[in-house]
Amino acid sequence: MSAPHEEDDFAPSNTPGYKPTAAKSVDEYAKLDAEDESLARWKASLGIVPGAASAASGPKVTILSLELASPTLPPGKHLVMNLQDPAALANFKKNPVTIKEGVEYNVRVTFKVNHSIISGVRYMQVVKRSGVKVDKMEQMLGSYGPHPNGEPYVKNFDTEESPSGMLARSGTYHVRSRVVDDDGEVYADWDWTFKIGKEW
Question: Rounded to whole angstroms, what are the CA distances from 143 to 16, 23, 45, 156, 184?
Fold first, then answer.
């Protein structure tokens, strides 16, 4: 169970004047403006058709993996966390990932929308070193419907630059990652660690 002050770290930022709309099912979206043929074709291309989610159960979103991508990564080296493998996640928590200092990288999330239309879903991470918060990231996944072929979506977030210098290279950074929506529903929540090094 998280301490209350840790939950404060994951309080989503609010845009003044923005108010999330009431959630609608895929069937409700499919029936909206049903007489508009071009809109109906577009919705069908997103898998939004009447009856598509009549047997919907389980989470609306399944987070499959998180990847750290960088053009500076050596060929063949991939930093991918499989969120469907508890043993692999435990390994990322126990054995820090090494990120090269002073390089550009971005976080990439692969996920599936199982049913319903998602909006207001965001990826958040809080980075601490020696128990002190040093960084917080909050990125929107966007709005999606179930993929017509059941294929996953991939979202690349903004490019960031890793810290550099001797101070940055000392110690281990502890990260808590979470995927949550505007209603507070949590789809994934996990811990991992990294170090800054001279090489990947």
Answer: 20, 12, 15, 14, 16
Over 90: is that where the pLDDT of 199 sits?
yes
Residues 6+ apart with CB under 8 A from 58: 114, 115
Inside any domain, residue 168: yes
Residue 97, phi then psi, degrees to nearest 5: -75, 140
Tell me the mean pLDDT in the region 64-82.
95
Q: What is the CATH number of the domain that holds 168?
A: 2.70.50.30
Whole domain around residue 41: which residue ranges?
23-52
Return the CA Rg of the chain: 19
Q: Kindly give, in sequence order, each residue whose CB lies less than 8 Å from that of residue 179, ignoring residues fewer than 6 positions away.
A: 61, 63, 109, 111, 121, 122, 123, 124, 141, 186, 187, 188, 189
Enumerate the β-bridge partners of residue 138.
124
DSSP lists the bridge partners of residue 74 as none
- pLDDT class for 41, splitting at 50, 70, 90? confident
CA-closest candidate to residue 165, choices 187, 137, 198, 143: 198
Residue 98, in any domain of the structure: yes
Residue 40 lies in a domain: yes
Residue 124: how many other CB atoms lie within 10 Å: 19
Instruction: Convert 132-145 to b/e letters by CB count within 10 Å (16 or more is b).
Output: eeeeebbbebeebb
Report the distance separating Cα 187 and Cα 154, nearest Å.
16
